[in-house]
Write a structure and sequence with these properties.
This protein is α/β, with parallel strands linked by helices. Helix content is 35%, strand content 19%. Helix 2 crosses helix 4, helix 3 packs parallel to helix 4 and helix 11 runs parallel beside helix 13.
Length: 395
């Protein structure tokens, strides 16, 4: 989705013709556009598998099957959000196998040109520890199936092999490996690790998950994430998470990562954030501020259509005038199309240079079709994505 389909809604046949490439800011091929501050802002806030195809293809052979594409995409988006919002700390992977998800985070660091963070990859590299009754019947069955990747033999991945793969993928400079059982290495290593932005817990069994949370949670920074790969897969993982949160009296909301299985929604992983809930809204707002700062010059006034939601919170240091406006305050929605067009003209005459529709008010462009036609026919749409639609009113 790149915002409302302006040309389709315009009604004017001329507006359905392909617009010249210079009329809209277009995305150019870049690894992760969320991290770009140039005028290439036409990208969705949350990337999907199509946008991440090259990155996923690079690391997929090293992810333990069955591969959940949705879980990989979610991990990538969380890492990108951390970088875009400058949440401090390294990335930590507990449970590495052949390196796939750790390499995914390292590839994001590499593609973003980040040199002051790394991915810590912690594993025994000797296979899974013994399963216990608390891990549940499915875990016991998987651990005792010689053909299952989680069996002791199949889960072995020698450290030297994983390090060699990191070198071949060009990721050695973004990774640091720690070999050993968690109950022996985490306490000894955590001071070296320091602040953690993303803690990816992918170690399946109750004892391992609990050890990771007990030893590393306190280093997850405010705004950082704990991702629980096996929360829906194995009873022991879910029990460990809820035990830990209850004992610490922590009120973190568990968020589901949802995929699709046989045409139905299927929970593939879980996560919680150490900080504000509903962080997707905060992330989109952050990117929208960047959008506005990119296309509207400093000091230029603009009309803000936000349904009264944001106000100066989204203005990025520019001068935002609410629409409709009376005495500098939001005055509500236009009574009709004629009022909407008249108010835009009045605002232009008073010196407003741009008009910004934010995503809570995208429906205006459908509800006021004459306003939409007026803007499309008379002014350049300089940016359109899933957060903002911006018109340059200086024509």
């Amino acid at each position: 989705m790149h915002g409302p389909p302006l040309a389709q809604m315009a009604g004017d046949p001329d507006s359905r013709r392909p617009r010249e490439e210079t009329n809209v800011t277009r995305d150019t091929p870049r690894p992760f556009p969320q991290l770009q501050h140039a005028a290439h802002r036409e990208f969705d806030s949350w990337m999907d598998a199509r946008h991440l195809e090259a990155t996923l293809d690079k690391v997929r052979p090293f992810v333990m099957p069955p591969v959940s594409v949705e879980a990989l995409v979610d991990l990538a988006n969380v890492a990108l959000m951390v970088l875009a919002c400058d949440i401090p700390g390294d990335f930590v992977e507990c449970g590495v196998w052949r390196g796939g998800t750790g390499f995914l985070m390292a590839e994001i660091l590499r593609g973003a040109g980040v040199r002051d963070r790394k991915v810590w990859l912690l594993d025994s590299f000797e296979g899974m520890p013994p399963v216990e009754a608390i891990d549940g019947p499915r875990a016991i069955a998987d651990a005792n199936d010689p053909a299952n990747p989680l069996s002791r033999h199949m889960s072995k991945a020698p450290l030297e092999d994983v390090q060699r793969t990191a070198m071949e993928l060009g990721l050695a400079g973004h990774t640091e490996f720690v070999k050993g059982w968690f109950d022996q290495t985490l306490r000894a290593t955590r001071d070296r690790i320091g602040p953690i932005a993303v803690l990816h817990v992918d170690c399946d069994w109750h004892a391992s998950v609990r050890c990771c949370l007990d030893n590393l949670y306190d280093q997850v920074v405010e705004g950082g994430f704990v991702i629980l790969d096996d929360y829906y897969g194995y009873d022991g993982c879910a029990i460990a998470v809820h035990e830990f949160l209850a004992e610490r009296r922590l009120a973190h909301r568990i968020e589901s990562v949802v995929g699709n299985w046989g045409g139905c929604d299927h929970n593939v992983a879980a996560r919680f954030r150490k900080g504000k809930a509903n962080w997707q809204w905060e992330y989109r707002l952050h990117l929208a501020r960047e959008d506005i700062a990119t296309v509207i010059p400093p000091g230029q006034p603009f009309i803000l259509v936000d349904d009264g939601v944001f106000g100066d919170e989204i203005a990025a240091g520019r001068r935002a005038t609410p629409f409709l406006e009376r005495d500098g305050r939001y005055w509500g929605r236009p009574a009709d199309d004629a009022t909407a067009v008249h108010e835009v003209e009045r605002a232009r005459q008073s010196g407003q240079s741009f008009m910004v529709f934010t995503w809570p008010a995208f429906w205006w462009l459908d509800a006021y079709p004459r306003l939409q036609r007026y803007l499309v026919a008379g002014f350049r749409c300089v940016l359109q994505n899933d957060r903002v639609v911006v018109f340059d009113l200086r024509a």
